[in-house]
Amino acid sequence: MYDGALILESLKVGTELEGIPLTVRKLSRYAVGTASGDQPKVWSVLEFEVERGEELADVLSQVLDSPGWYADFHDDREIFVVFPGRVFRYRRGDDTAREEAKEFGRGLSIPEPQLDWTR
Q1: CA angle 73, 77, 90 (to 5 degrees)
Q2: What whole-number percentage of the chain has pLDDT above 90?
Q3: Is 96 exposed, middle or buried (0-12, 13-18, 19+ CB in 10 A)?
Q4: Segment (H or E) for 17
Q5: Residue 63: in which H helix or E strand, if any?
Q6: What is the pLDDT, as a whole number, of residue 119?
């Protein structure tokens, strides 16, 4: 089972996520001090669990809005970091792969403090 978080404002308008069962653990809304100029100042965050990580990553890579958004989820062994059009999947503790994903995020102008997913 993978644990993750999805910022609802990161989804393209008109997106519907269907067919991939998610267990909602928490839904919260808060003001963001590190929002870029392209991001809203208030975010709604859905924390979830999912079994079908590869399938969710594929779908999210198609529905995340550009620029500057990503979603991440992980289990005890691996991490998925999903950007619009690109999925990074790597073993926990692989700092080289983590840095590659962060570099990709920087290329999308994601603010550095936001590139903070689980190690």
Answers
A1: 65
A2: 80
A3: exposed
A4: none
A5: helix 53-63
A6: 80
